[in-house]
Amino acid sequence: MNFLRKRKPYDWKREQQRLWEDLVPDSGQAESLQGELLRIACKLTDQAYRNGNMNWDDEHEIMWRFISEKIGSDVIFTQKEQCLIKEKVEEIIRDQECPDLSGDGSPYYLITEKVVDWCMAYPKLIPHDENSDLMR
Known about the structure:
Layout: H1 12-23, H2 33-51, H3 58-71, H4 79-94, H5 107-121
Helix pairs in contact: 1-2, 1-5, 2-3, 2-5, 3-4, 4-5
């Protein structure tokens, strides 16, 4: 999997923190697509690591699929990366009762890293229309 991790001029974990502070509201959905993708990836990753997805419901799957739909075919990623993003989102959904919590090698970290990469590639904020079906 590491062969698909490109060298970057930034540390994705530092950028994740910076982007979170700049783009993710204290509660509710983000106004920008960048903020919403980051909010979803970070909050659901935290939930997997903190409580093993004990609160998993249909909204989790909707949110993970939203990430896959928005970044999984984007031209900033190679075809292999696009396939990996889609594959890892499906793995997260499939294995929700027994999540891979192996840290840097986990699908959660990989997807979060790819969300950060996407946000870095699109610094001009893209408006996000709130999904009224989501309570999280």
